[in-house]
Amino acid sequence: MIPFLLYWALPIILILGTEYAIKGTLSFEAITAILIYGLLEEIGWRGFLQQQLKPLPELLNVLIVAVLWFIWHLNFDFTSSNLLFLGILILGSWGIGKVANNTHSLLAVAAFHSLNNFFLEMNTLKIILLISLLSIWIIALVIRKNQQNAQKVILS
Predict the structure, then answer these.
(1) Which residue of 19, 20, 28, 85 is 20 to 30 Å from 55, comparing CA positions?
(2) Which residue, 103, 107, 108, 104, is CA-closest to 145?
């Protein structure tokens, strides 16, 4: 229940609040589509492909996932903006992969993925929202990691 509240309910509430503050309307369909689309994509990228490539060195795993993700987005022209996007996908594949490995939660992975889908156009309010969500999620990941380490020490 905690991953659902932390990675889905909280972003929906904050994103809807931001949309209302910016546009004066609530576009629940768009937010839901972003979160559901992110989840469906991550079932394939992190839930399946990254796991299948686990035997490979981490860098090769990340590069393969990033290049396939780049092609998935139909970026065939090697323009400077597309090459920048490929770089972002490489960093994203590494970062989201770390979230997947540390949380074992596709909801967490989908939430991080969805941030990219929602924050294509930035403004001050969205930057505050982005920093707030990332801070909350990183704190939650650190707390989870500390709890896992404490349990390992107790079991030792």
Answers:
(1) 85
(2) 103
